[in-house]
Structures are given as C-alpha cells and as structure tokens.
Amino acid sequence: xxxxxxxxxxxxxxxxxxxxxxxxxxxxxxxxxxxxxxxxxxxxxxxxxxxxxxxxxxxxxxxxxxxxxxxxxxxxxxxxxxxxxxxxxxxxxxxxxxxxxxxxxxxxxxxxxxxxxxxxxxxxxxxxxxxxxxxxxxxxxxxxxxxxxxxxxxxxxxxxxxxxxxxxxxxxxxxxxxxxxxxxxxxxxxxxxxxxxxxxxxxxxxxxxxxxxxxxxxxxxxxxxxxxxxxxxxxxxxxxxxxxxxxxxxxxxxxxxxxxxxxxxxxxxxxxxxxxxxxxxxxxxxxxxxxxxxxxxxxxxxxxxxxxxxxxxxxxxxxxxxxxxxxxxxxxxxxxxxxxxxxxxxxxxxxxxxxxxxxxxxxxxxxxxxxxxxxxxxxxxxxxxxxxxxxxxxxxxxxxxxxxxxxxxxxxxxxxxxxxxxxxxxxxxxxxxxxxxxxxxxxxxxxxxxxxxxxxxxxxxxxxxxxxxxxxxxxxxxxxxxxxxxxxxxxxxxxxxxxxxxxxxxxxxxxxxxxxxxxxxxxxxxxxxxxxxxxxxxxxxxxxxxxxxxxxxxxxxxxxxxxxxxxxxxxx
Length: 572
Hints:
By secondary structure, the chain is α+β, with helices and mostly antiparallel strands. It has helices at residues 15-27, 64-74, 81-100, 134-147, 215-222, 256-259, 285-297, 316-322, 324-332, 387-406, 418-429, 439-453, 460-479, 491-515, 567-571; strands at residues 2-11, 33-36, 54-55, 116-117, 127-128, 151-154, 157-164, 171-178, 183-194, 227-228, 233-240, 263-265, 307-310, 341-351, 354-355, 368-370, 538-545, 548-555. The strands form four sheets. Strands 1, 2, 6, 7, 8, 9 and 16 form a seven-stranded mixed β-sheet that branches. Strands 15-10-17-18 form a four-stranded antiparallel β-sheet. Strands 11-14-13-12 form a four-stranded antiparallel β-sheet, covered by helices on one side. A hairpin with a 2-residue loop joins β17 and β18 (548-555). α1 (15-27) runs parallel beside α10 and α12 (439-453) runs parallel beside α14. The radius of gyration is 23 Å and the shape is globular.
C-alpha cells in the first residue's frame, strides 16, 4: 500500500476545505498541506452550486445581535449558541476577506455599498450575492488562491475510513482510494480536517451534486464519533420539477425568488402560503416545505406532482436581470420563469446535523477537526438560507488557523492501528469479485424509503417502516459486487461505496427521528405536531454501536440567551 505523510490533511475542497488550506498556510507557510477531493479542485462540491448568497450583518440598520437572534429562532432554539455567535460575528470579517484579499466581486448598490437581498426567515435583508451565481464566484477565487500556493492536491481520491493510532492517542490518518488507478493510499497526518460536505442525496428529490454521499458523516460514525441532531434534514421548498428522466429535477430555484416577492400557487391558481404562516412565502424553509407538501397531499398538485412559483407580476425584464442564471436554467427545461409559472417541489438540500465539534473545530477524536456541513450544532433545527456558505467559510478559516496552531512538526507522526487498516481495506475491496447486482434498483428503493417514510412529514409508523426497510437495504447492498476487470475509474465500484455511506447515514437519520418525539424545525412528527418546552430543549446524539444505532439526548446550553429573551433588547 502506498503511503503519504503530511502535516495537515484536508478532506474536501468546498468552501470549508479551501478556506482551511489558505488559513493554515497563512498562519504557518512552512506546513505541508494536502487537500484530498473526490473530484477536481474547484469543480465539484456544493459550495460551487450556491446561488443565493452569504448572510452577514453589514448595514448600519442591521446588527450582529439581530443576525444571531434570527439564526437561533430559525433553528428552533436547538443551536449551539457559542457556535452560532461565532458564525455571525466572524461573517463580517470573512466577507471582507473574500472581497479585499481573495478578489470576489459581489453586487453593489449605486452608492457603492454591498447590495444585500431578502431571504426568508430573516428580519433584515442581509444576503450578499453575485447575481444568482454566488457560489461560483467564491469557489473560483478560492481555487485560484489555493493553486498559487504550495498545497498538494490529491484529486479523484476517495476517503474510505478514519484510521486511529495504534497507541490510542487519536487519529493517525485516512485510508483512501486513488480513483484513477483503483489503488489504496494511506495518508498519515499530524492533523486532519473533515470537510467533505453533507449532501442528502438519499432522497428522491435532492439538490446536491451527484458526487455527494455523506461520506464524512459515515466515516465519523464508523470511527465511533457522535452525530448531533442528524434527524434535521432541510428541504428547500422550491426544487425545479422538470419531470422524470432529467437530473435537472430537484435542483434549486433559490430563495431570493421568494424574497423578491415571488408567489407560490397551487393547481387551483390560489396563492396559499398565508394560510400557513403570516409571513407568506417568506416563512422559513421548513414551514414552506410542509405547506407545499400539504397542498400536494390534499389534491392541489400540479401535473408533475408539485406546485408553482410565479414571478411575472414583478416584471419579466427585472426577473431576467436579477435572476439570470435561473431564468436560463428554466428556459433550458422549457419553462418561462420570468413571465410564466414553473413547477416546483420541496427538495432535500442540507444536513443541519453532523459531527459534534467545538468552536476551535476540534472533535472528540484528538487530531481530527471538522468544519462545514459535516458538522452539527451551528444551525439547530433549521438553517436560514444564506447561512450555509457563511458557515463553511467562517469555520473553514477557523479550522485552518486552529490546525496550524496545534500542528507540531517536531512530533513524530502516529503509527496507524493495523487492525483498523485491515478493516478499511476489507470494506473498500469487498465488492470486487462478488456476484453483481442491480445498484440502480437499490438506489431507487433508497429514494422511495427516505421520501415516503423519513421525509418532510413523519410519524412513528412511517419511521418504523423506514427502519425495517433501511436495515434490509443495508444487508442487500453488502451482498452486491462489482466487476473487478479494471479498477481504474471503476464508477460502479464508487457508486457501490456511495450507497453504503448513504444507507448508513439514512439509518442514523431514521433512528434520531424516531427518538425525537416532538416537532422542531425541519423535523415534523405528525403524531407529535407541537414543539416541546423550549426552555428544556434537548439535542440528539447518534452513535454506531456494533451494527446498531444508539440515540441519546442532552440538554441545550443557553449560553447567551434563553427562550423568551432577546439579545437585541439586551444590546439596546
């Protein structure tokens, strides 16, 4: 087995991973930094796909406290408040860094100030953007800066397992597969960052890129780490519904459409959102998604099974100017977003839950750090649109600086646990040579189980059915093999490994959803439709215990503000 030694290993090349690399080199240029990514640096992952923008309190009428309270109330008081405070206080620093140091161009007002648009669930228009292609702007500039620095790139490399040290002192490194050759590689590192992103692609309708399969969370579970609030899966209310047989179905029509005044209407032509929330279309994503699902279920669905979004009343020319990317995407699918109406459906978008981590991005496993969508606690039960890319860049930068400070180049690299290496090898190569099966059928079953049983609306009965079906699916995928004729770019092999990660994380979602017998944010139990007492809020912790998943709960620490209080009032 090939082996590579490095000071810092970063798994993932989205906003969190690239910012971590830049900040690690900024704090100590002599460090040997390696980025490993399943695709090509700058060309894959979810940050690049961000349309809407970046939440940050910049305007004199806005405040850090106001952004914080919107984040906590949007998260249904399940957030780790210290992490949420770090998010909102560091975001202004990071947005200036993006513009002034890294070269991002964000839209401006006529007076030269940064333009900030409206996003749902917020009491102030604070979303900085570059048209509706903000993620491309950010990732292009980050990638350029990483390319010009001495950072090693392991592209087309897939992380398989976190390998502990033989002496039990923490993480030794990561067992990987070079997808180009099909050969294993063990990367030994003094510190490692888990920043692979989430990506709930286990649902029938989903927004993330096809390479996302919750690998980081699956590796964390297998390593014995707890996942916080993993039942909290966010559905974006307006995924494009373009019919069967196209991968455009499920892609996001961003929240700025509703923030700008777009209407949601049902098959009867009724604008229905004010029946569900006084904020109408500008309610938070969880509320709008449930409202749409209710209209569909009660017989007011569009021809493809969704509802409509309409923008024409705002003026087609204005819509084409302000939402150029989405207008063109809809036109490619035969829809007129600027002047007509487009079918949409809630689509799985973001994982609020993830690895437990501290403000310095350390995790319970020594020498392992985490940032971005792999982590839990920042967003609580529901992420505000625009807080996602802020989360990745804020904590990615903090992780890079923290790893640089904690990396001791004089210390010897840890030796890996041989038994853990062997288990990783067996798991990676187990499918090769086994009787081949129908992976597409497995994926379709997974879609159906998660959408119908563990989706937007949940009950004890649906979750019980989901648990049984997912356990059976895990056994089924374990028996499926792939051809071993050529391991180079063996995408069937990679898809088999993707499904293994997705099924494991799906089982964790289902277990945590079963344990949470109240409704909070993105998690809605029709048999427990109200939230439990906010003052005694508890978060879930899900661990892998043998082949089973165990869930416990712990009280939320209200370190900065308690339910019924507001930092805005305190600041005033």
